[in-house]
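Why should sequence recovery work at all? Because a backbone constrains its sequence more than one might expect. Tight turns favour small or flexible residues, buried strands favour hydrophobic ones, and helices have their own preferences. The token representation captures these environments compactly. In the example below, the structure is given first.
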């Protein structure tokens, strides 16, 4: 067992962190998409 396995900085589950990262980035691009769609509808 190496020294990094003994002294873990974060005890969180990796699945939870990956779901958080995916959902935040998905929401971010969704917001950008809707802002662009709103500008396109208002401009036409």
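From this structural description, the recovered sequence reads:
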């Amino acid at each position: 067992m190496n020294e990094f396995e003994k002294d873990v900085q974060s005890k969180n589950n990796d699945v939870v962190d990956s779901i958080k990262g995916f959902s935040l980035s998905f929401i971010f691009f969704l917001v950008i998409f809707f802002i662009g769609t709103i500008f396109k509808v208002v401009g036409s």
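A few observations help interpret the result. The radius of gyration is 19 Å.
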